[in-house]
């Protein structure tokens, strides 16, 4: 196979024949199915301590670390939150159908859901609909830590996209 043909295939400028695809897969040492089938999601993904993404940092040093998440359409996120005294994280309403579950690992936090407020101590848990404005705060004098799971069903599905356009 010519170098030019390989470049054209790579750039999407050529529509390769099965024979060309077989030569490419042989050269790469993979079977034709591996070359042409869409990648399958990994059945197991290990995220080591410290590999999560810190997506929020508080004024007093707290942080929200996205530890792990699943693929669409039904997304589930696992977060590790630390709130220093005086930290507060306010969240806008998520898409309709979103649910949140959290458990306090250490300290005391206040969770505001719409017009309600809940004070939670170590070991306490709370579930709520995340499709309303909500916030997490540490009004205490020592750091607090909690684990949060966020479930968003149907992310990216046509019905969800249409509903969010309204």
Features:
Jelly Rolls, 2 domains, 6-stranded antiparallel beta sheet, 4-stranded antiparallel beta sheet, 10 strands, disordered C terminus, about 170 residues, elongated
Your description of this structure?
- The chain has helices spanning 3-10, 18-28, 32-36, 158-165, and strands spanning 53-57, 63-69, 75-83, 88-91, 99-106, 108-113, 116-121, 125-129, 134-137, 144-152.
- With 166 residues, the protein is an alpha+beta fold.
- The chain folds into two domains: 3-36, no CATH class; 53-158, Jelly Rolls (Sandwich), CATH 2.60.120.10.
- A hairpin with a 2-residue loop joins β6 and β7.
- The radius of gyration is 23 Å and the shape is elongated.
In short:
Helices cover 19% and strands 38% of the residues.
According to CATH, what is the class of the largest domain?
Mainly Beta
Total strands? 10
The pLDDT mean sits at 84
What is the general shape?
elongated
Adjacency order of strands in the biggest sheet: 1-2-3-10-5-8
What is CATH's topology name of the largest domain? Jelly Rolls
Topology at a glance:
Elements: H1 3-10, H2 18-28, H3 32-36, E1 53-57, E2 63-69, E3 75-83, E4 88-91, E5 99-106, E6 108-113, E7 116-121, E8 125-129, E9 134-137, E10 144-152, H4 158-165
């Amino acid at each position: 196979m010519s170098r030019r043909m390989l470049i054209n295939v790579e750039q999407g400028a050529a529509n390769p024949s099965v024979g060309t695809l077989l030569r490419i897969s042989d050269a790469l040492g993979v079977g034709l199915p591996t070359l042409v089938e869409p990648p399958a999601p990994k059945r197991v993904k290990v995220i080591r301590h410290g590999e999560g993404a810190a997506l929020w940092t508080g004024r007093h040093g707290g942080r929200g670390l996205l530890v792990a998440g699943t693929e669409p359409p039904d997304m589930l996120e696992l977060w590790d939150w630390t709130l220093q005294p005086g930290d507060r994280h306010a969240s806008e309403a998520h898409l309709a159908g979103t649910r949140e579950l959290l458990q306090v690992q250490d300290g005391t936090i206040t969770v505001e859901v719409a017009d309600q407020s809940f004070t939670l101590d170590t070991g306490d848990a709370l579930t709520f609909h995340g499709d309303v404005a909500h916030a997490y705060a540490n009004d205490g004098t020592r750091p607090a830590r909690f684990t949060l799971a966020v479930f968003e069903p149907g992310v990216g599905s046509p019905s969800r996209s249409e509903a969010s356009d309204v």
